[in-house]
């Protein structure tokens, strides 16, 4: 029996299975990875964890992000990442796993109590503000995982493996904002729970933006729902199988870790999540849902500034003074 197999057998994990050959070991590993998926289907467990990767350097937003994480840039009166966490909370996700780096502890601090500020607000009688800052600290359970090297989105998800263990979990990119009557990630959770399969969120993009995204090749089996046959990373528009782009929302099962381990690192040693998703698609184990709602990429300056205007216009008091100023700046009617 191979080293370590005796201990596993003693725990009843593999019993008398003979795993002498490399092929048998691979089959055994695969069966272990999929066991958690079957257990989820049988127990119909709720999905409560969400992984939010926030370790990237935010170079698209320099120089604003030289010393401030892009996820902490303000959109109207909140940092970007708070909107993402609020979407998770509204979808029933209680445990937020930040995959972070040593320079981004300010993100975790934002979701903690600030006793000095709270004392000041208490002494000055600013009870509404006090209530607001305390609510941020009490939104969700925060768990932090360090990504010591920034080696791609797939690697970030892999870093959260010990926290997620055998539970299905959501993934929400920390600078991708989505707003709709039903939260974006909730739309995916509903399908994942009913179909017992991993789900990626997609949106249709204009032809000139196809080359910026991973694009799915899928078959629509219900309105806005697709069986994914393949994924193509940043194709030319004339080579793309569709214009359905993968956006920053996923619901994944523990078998994703098995596929991530098999991914060959690409440029700069990065492990791409799209490559692991291709493995799921190859096994007919991946669905896509066309997310309904408004999306803003906070790493794109046009989207980021549009998001600020979008929220400002939803503030009745601010809108009254903002609209005339916008009219001064824009050549309406020209």
Structure overview:
- This protein has 334 residues and is an alpha/beta fold.
- The chain has a single domain (25-315), classed as Spore Coat Polysaccharide Biosynthesis Protein SpsA, Chain A (Alpha-Beta Complex).
- It is built from 13 helices and 13 strands.
- The chain has helices spanning 5-10, 22-43, 80-90, 105-110, 115-123, 127-137, 153-159, 161-164, 184-195, 255-262, 273-282, 301-313, 316-329; strands spanning 49-53, 74-75, 78-79, 95-100, 141-146, 169-172, 176-179, 199-204, 214-222, 225-233, 244-252, 287-290, 294-297.
- Strands 5-4-1-6-11-8-12-10-9 form a nine-stranded mixed sheet, sandwiched between helices. Strands 2-3 form a two-stranded antiparallel sheet.
- Helix 2 packs antiparallel against helix 10 (255-262), helix 7 packs across helix 11 (273-282) and helix 10 crosses helix 11 (273-282).
- The model is unreliable at 1-21 (pLDDT under 50).
Structure, briefly:
With 334 residues, the protein is of the alpha/beta class. Helix content is 40%, strand content 21%. A hairpin with a 2-residue loop joins strand 2 and strand 3.
Radius of gyration, taken over Cα atoms and rounded to an integer in Å:
22 Å
Element string (H = helix, E = strand): HHEEEHEHHHEHHEEHEEEEHHEEHH
Q: What is the number of strand segments?
A: 13
The unreliable regions are 1-21
| Average pLDDT metric | 86
Total separate domains: 1
Portion in helices: 25-40%
Structural class designation: alpha/beta
Shape: globular
Secondary structure tally, helices: 13
Supply the CATH superfamily name: Spore Coat Polysaccharide Biosynthesis Protein SpsA, Chain A
Strand content: 15-25%
The CA-CA distance between the termini, in Å, is: 79 Å
Adjacency order of strands in the biggest sheet: 5-4-1-6-11-8-12-10-9
